[in-house]
Structures are given as C-alpha cells and as structure tokens.
Write a structure and sequence with these properties.
5 helices; mainly beta; five-stranded mixed sheet; globular; 470 residues; four-stranded antiparallel sheet
C-alpha cells in the first residue's frame, strides 16, 4: 500500500523556509535512478554496517575513485547559520533533546545512491555524487533502521522499518510481572519494501511491536527482531511470512547480524543474545551474560567475524549513578561466552547505553559512552590493545588504510592510528553531533548523518588533514 508523501515542490519550499539546503543548491531530480553507470559502488547493502563485522568501507577495486563533498539538510534541520546559543534557546530549552534525533543511524550507499533514514519518519534517496534528492518515503512513524538494499525478482528493493521507543501504559506495567512479555513501540509499526529507483511501495508487513532494529537480508529473506519479542523472516520479494520465532526479549536497537547461517539479535526483558537458524527459524542458542543494566543488552547491534560474536553491555555496580562498560565475545556456533572485558566505569549515560563494535583484521574497534573512550581489542581473547580518551560515543567506528574514525557526541570525527590509538586529527563537522550515527566510507568519502538533521559527504583526506583540535 502507498502512503501519503510530501510533494517534491512542497519539500523544496519547506527546506528553503527552514534555512536548509544541500550540495550546490542541491535541487530535486525525481527521475534520478540507481543502477546504470554506478558499477563502482556496492550493489547491495544486506544489513547494518554493510556486513556482519560492521566494517562499512568500500573502495572501488582497481580504480582511482574521486571523493565527493556535499551537505543535505532534511526539512526541519537545524539551520547551518544557527549559533550554539540559538540551538540552546530554540531546541534544547523547549524540549527533551535525545541522542536519537535527526539521522539516527548509518546510511547505506548502493549503486550511486545514498539511502538515509530519518526519525521524522522518512527515508531519503540521494545521489551519492552530489547529494541531490531523487525520492522520499513516509513510514508514518520514526525510521531508525539503516535501509537494507537487495536485488530480488522484483528488482532492487530498499527495506526499512518503522517504529518508536515508547511503551503504552498497559505494556509498561508488565515490567513488574516476572516472566511477562513486554511489547515496545506504539503507533504504526512495520517493514516496508520500496523500489530502489522510485521509492514506490512494493509491500508492507505490519507488526505489533516497533521495527527500529535494522533487518538482515539473506538468501531471499528479510529477517529481523523487533519490539514484540519475536524474530521474523519474510519473503524478500513478496513480503509474506516465512517463519516467526518467539524469543520473549524485546529487541530495541539491536540490528540483526549474520554469523554463518545464524541470525543474531540481542534483546531486553529478559536480557539475552539469541541466534536463530535463517532457514527454519529454530532457536540455535541463547546467551545470557547477566549483570546487565537497564536496556543495554538490546541497545547494541552485535558484530560477528571469525566465528565470534561481539557485543557490549552496561554492567550494574553498587555505586549510585555509576555503571560499568563491558565488551563480550561469544562463540558464534554455540553461544558460549568466550571472554568478558571490563572497559571501565563511569556515569550512567542517557538512553541507549552502548557503543556498537566494528571488527577488522582480527581487531575489535569500539567506543564506550560510559568511559568516553575508544578501544581496540583482540578478537580472540578480548585483550585491550589500546585505549584513547575522547568523548561520549555510541556509533560503530570506520576504518580506512591505517586509520580508524570515531564520530563523537560533540560533532567531532576523530582519526586515530589503528595500531597505537594515537590521535591523527580531530575534524569538526560543524552542524550537529553524533550519537548512534555511524559513518560509512565508500570510494574515499565518508557518508554520515548528524542529530541536527544533516547528511554529510566528507572526503576521508579532509578527515585526516590539518592540526588536531585537542
């Protein structure tokens, strides 16, 4: 079914009225299409972070790709000219500003297009080369999934989920009942399949709970955990239900990860990591680390590589207002916990409690919103190889060459030496900060959204240039 959308002309007028713009005056090009002439880009984006390791870097093989630079502001984005005082007066003082505002998580970049989720309920399709808008879609609820893109019998489709982090009163009171299943999400929830070229709706699948976590596409199926305590598999072309498995835990922001033929998600109440067989939906294993604070188990999207699943939890302590930050490695085949590494303690962060890990060349790179530090850990043992105090961070970092990039809450993108953790540069993005917003690197360009409603395309050479602002 199709949903009402803002007409392109009205969108342009609204953008100008809000004082927002995009690359070189951006423009609207409804006829712009993904695909032809864009073979140098990824041709699919099957899950959060592009792959199970969340190593979202793709540089065109055997070619010298030209990096690009542009900005795109969604309707209602904080104007570029706004001063810190303006932001505080107009936005912060009148509302409870959360981390999950603007562009909540990472974008996907496929066949020359950038697909952008926004918590205003829309997904935007932009040209990767210049930021021009091709189409938009309204899900009638917040979108906090990275758009998944796959080739199907119905052509290239984009999959997004709609939902929010709210609990109705009737569900919230169930937290006081041991063993009760709690449903998270109010309003209109569902998974949508859109034509990659036009944004037209191919199918919609409604669920009881929110669909904020990013699904995984695997062998013709769209598989996801959500807010009603189940993991679902849908036919990717038709949208029909293939199987549905109860795990009881509601999955808040834990995007699905693929480990072999197992789909792994993490959930809350009870706190657990669950792995289900992608073909049948049978529960393969359940890992319950224990000592989990609040919803942190379900806030982290696990990464998987080399037969190990890695996640992060916030651990309870005996100190008021203080939590621990713990990285956990789990055997992907059995669910046995291999290692647990306490990264440190610190003030309990607001809302989503964990940073998302990324794995590259046998090293886990992650941050911690509890300790405000970046880390590199050995994938096999969990041993900390280095740590670096930065600022509050929640997103998965990105790597390119000898550098690892960490976006942090104050709007800085730190470039660190991968081997030592030494600071190479501190790039100031200029309009908004980064909570769970992870950057993806395609053809030497980082594409990343901010909590002020902006999407940037930044050459990685710029992220490395200049004197660090420490």
């Amino acid at each position: 079914m199709n949903h009402p959308r803002i007409a392109m002309a009205l969108l342009c007028a609204a953008s100008l009225a809000a004082g927002v713009c995009h690359a070189a005056n951006g423009g609207i090009e409804p006829a712009r299409q993904a695909g032809a002439g864009h073979e140098g880009y990824p041709q699919a984006w099957p899950m959060y972070g592009m792959n199970s390791a969340h190593d979202a870097t793709y540089d065109e093989p055997g070619a010298k790709a030209t990096p690009v630079a542009w900005k795109f502001g969604v309707p209602g984005a904080v104007p570029l000219a706004a001063t810190p005082g303006d932001v505080k007066k107009k936005y912060v003082n009148i509302t409870a500003v959360r981390d999950l505002v603007g562009i909540p998580v990472g974008v996907s970049v496929v066949a020359g297009m950038v697909y952008v989720p926004d918590d205003n309920g829309r997904v935007y399709a932009l040209s990767a080369s210049d930021g021009k808008l091709a189409w938009q879609f309204d899900a009638l609820n917040q979108i906090m999934t990275t758009p998944v893109v796959a080739q199907t019998a119905k052509g290239a489709l984009v999959y997004v989920g709609g939902g929010n982090a709210d609990f109705s009163y009737s569900e919230a009171v169930k937290f006081g009942t041991p063993g009760a299943s709690v449903v998270r999400g109010t309003g209109i929830n569902g998974i949508y399949a859109l034509q990659a070229k036009t944004g037209e709706v191919v199918w919609t699948y409604r669920t009881q709970g929110q669909d904020m976590p990013t699904p995984v596409y695997h062998e013709g199926k769209v598989i996801f955990g959500n807010g009603d305590g189940h993991v679902y598999a849908l036919d990717a072309a038709a949208g029909s239900l293939l199987w549905k498995t109860e795990i009881k835990s509601f999955v808040s922001m834990s995007s699905a990860t693929l480990a072999g033929n197992l789909v792994v998600v993490a959930g809350t109440h009870p706190d657990a990591i669950d792995a289900v067989n992608a073909d049948t939906g049978a529960l393969a294993w359940k890992a319950e680390p224990g000592n989990v604070y609040s919803s942190s188990m379900g806030d982290c999207a696990p990464a998987a590589s080399g037969g190990i699943v890695v996640t992060q939890i916030e651990a309870t302590t005996q100190k008021p207002g203080v939590a621990g930050s713990e990285e956990i490695g789990v055997d992907a085949a059995t669910g046995r916990i291999i290692w647990r590494t306490m990264l440190g303690e610190g003030k309990v962060p607001p809302r989503n409690k964990d940073a998302v890990p990324m794995i590259s060349d046998g090293v886990v790179y992650t941050g911690s919103p509890v300790t405000n530090s970046a880390y590199a850990l050995d994938l096999r043992t969990g041993k900390v190889l280095w740590s670096r105090k930065l600022s509050r961070m929640k997103a998965a970092p990105s790597v390119e060459g000898g550098h690892v990039f960490f976006p942090v809450a104050n709007g800085t993108i730190f470039a660190l030496d991968r081997k030592t953790g030494g600071i190479v540069n501190a790039y100031k993005s200029g309009n908004g900060g980064f909570g769970p917003q992870n950057g993806v690197i395609v053809n030497h360009t980082m594409y990343i959204g901010t909590n002020y409603g902006w999407v940037y395309a930044i050459p990685t050479s710029e992220l490395l240039a200049g004197k660090p602002d420490l």
